[in-house]
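Inputs:
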Amino acid sequence: MSKITLSVYRGDANGGEMKTYTVDTFPGMVVLDAIHQIQAEQDGTLACRWNCKAAKCGSCSAEVNGMPKLMCKTRVDDYPADQPIVVHPLRTFPIVKDLVADVSWNFEVSKSIPILKLADDGSAEPLRMQQVDVDRIQEFRKCIECFLCQTVCHVLRDGDRKDIFFGPRQMVRLASLEMHPLDVLDRRPMLRETAGVGICNITKCCTEVCPEHIHITDNAIIPLKERVADTYFDPVQKVLRWVGGRK
Amino acid sequence: MPQYDTFEHDVLIVGAGGAGLRAAIGAVEKGCSVCVVTKSLLGKAHTVMAEGGAAAALGNFDNQDGWKVHFRDTMRGGKFLNNWRTVQIFAMEAPERILELERYGAVFDRTPEGLISQRAFGGHRYRRLAHVGDRTGLELIRTLQDKAVSVGIDVQMEVTLTRLLTDGGRVTGAVGYRREDGSIVVFRAKAVVLCSGGWGRMFRFTSNSWESTGDGAVMAYEAGAELQDMEMVQFHPTGMIWPPGVRGVLVTEGVRGDGGVLKNGAGERFMFNHVPEFYRAETAETPEEALRWVNDKVNNRRPPELLPRDVVARAIYKEVEAGRGSEHGGAYLDVSHMGAEYIKRKLPSMYDQFLHLGDVDITKQPMEVYPTVHYTMGGVPAEPESCATSLPGLYAAGECACGLHGANRLGGNSLTDLLVFGKRAGEAAGDFAIAEGPGSISEAEIQEEVETLMKPLGGSGGENPYQIHAELQEQMQSGAMIARTEEGLRQTLDKIHELQRRAEDIRVPGDTKFNPGWHAARDVKNMLVSSEIIVLSALERKESRGAQWRLDYPNEDAYWARNNVIAKKIDGKVSISHREVPEPPSELKELLQD
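Outputs:
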């Protein structure tokens, strides 16, 4: 049985340090297995989140050798065996303890987004929608809320501007509602103002790290930017709004 | 004594899976203030892992389907240990709940007519499962999460509740701790709804997450509630077994629904040799008919791979025991003959899961599978109409409740269960809260629980909770898994008693700040209680039925066909008794004949 070493962040919001652990490997081992082995055999106080261990719940997000990953989907044999695998909590959010980050901001923002609104609210009739018309929102609804996209977003990570941009995850959620064939709410004012879709500078880092392979930038953010631009910044529309006396 | 925060609500909901969230919506709609407490973050509960779909007789493909057929299939799948009235309500209300979910925002796959597409699944006579690819559970939980938040609920994330509080037998709240810092929290409520899920973590091969430790059922039991059918632990026939890193992870039944076949080590499609007489008339006779069924479900019968889960799990076990296992001691599940494009479209996350975690390209190679502990049919018996339990003020819905699935759950019935009975439980708890007003909570009970919680942090004990858990899993796997005997169960019971004694001496390092070892110390105690009850119930039922397979009592028994096993805490010990299964009225009985 071969061994690997991991360098794991230990600490909390007041600071901490990287600590090295050596664990036995087995075929198919993922980083989360290694963390569990440390907990069971070396240090039960090592904190991490996890649930399904099948890349379906998005709980075990961390930064492995600097890349945001689901620990349950990251195999240890993808890394050179002679160097420690570095495991750090998501850097864009405050650290609670060890690998656990405080991601509560994402849930707070989510509360402000209005859910689906149908024209015939209150009816119990089956909805009629064609598969081709829901294909694109089904892509957005694959999101498992791992927040890896939020942690690499430059606006949130480098600029720490959580006050002006909801982040890629919420753009995907807004896109799934805005592009729902039967939704009648208009979320463009929200997108332009509080959600801050215009702030995204399309570096596509979010798309690269998405474990569900959602084309966040191309399929969600850019079309949302276009909707906002068409509404608020199209010169023809602007003239029409003047003439019509609307906002 | 540590200080604690107290929260007051009309209705406290324990668990934020599908049942808890649907119950929250129901209670809010009754005008109640509602708090949902979850051990994890919102949206991470076990519901998220469900793959195949939610069963409801919408009849979008097969217009012969209706609630009566769904009723019949569910009762037959459960080997008639189900509560018939629970099943009737379930089958009748399932379509409404699915259509309601769609109006909350769920986006199911569509039929050519633009309606909800429905998938065939084991034990269901017609195509019945509303689905979204192979991530239906995610769609369901995210939809309910967004809806529940929008109607205005309080959510307490990463809080573990460990004890129900009572006032003269009535349940009036719960106490537990915040995982983040270990601070004690007390919830006072006029009614409590348990939606705390199942318990599979005491077995080594399981698709369950760390959360499935059975705290809900154990809390109810400790507070004096009855538990029922605890021997009925479902083994999903197809868990991944290789490589070890993914052992236990689920391979959705959808693989078999979409044409996947099971083969043994000799390359033989063995399921044709394991068709019980009970199901022969509705099962394909030849591989040719089974293959035709994939594309023409009207004129062909279903493949034997889609027999109910207990049948398929036992067949795999028998093949392996007979020396006909796959390379790593399971069976091969092969879908490669369906073509790469078809597989990637129909089973995208399975394709991904095996490619990245198992080094297997399922468009070219077979998967290796073995039964994995998946679901618990037993739990807190709940009244069909209201989900009320044997304790006033306590309601139960979802996997922790008991009554719907009998001796074996059909795939697809769980997600719908959450919707139908989540709603009913939330509404009934809301009505109770409004009618009864507040009860009082007991300071003595709170202090007792705080002592239990804090004990592993001090003292001189030398036991490690992870070690006790590992030994429990090893023993339950060998002695109480799929094939059970008196001897194996007795040995398991002895081991559980030994581990219970040792668990008193658990000592964990560190403090209460997000300390998984300390969390595990409390969890393992709950697992020991539920394991003991599972084993005692399995010993009691001296027959084979559904998920309970006794090698020493291989046949069904007429007495046990009419009786549920009940466990209740009396004088500090597990007391086992029997209760007659309610008899369906004659017009429903007729539905069960064919």
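Remarks. Chain A has two domains: 3-101, 104-237. The first helix of chain A runs from residue 31 to 41.
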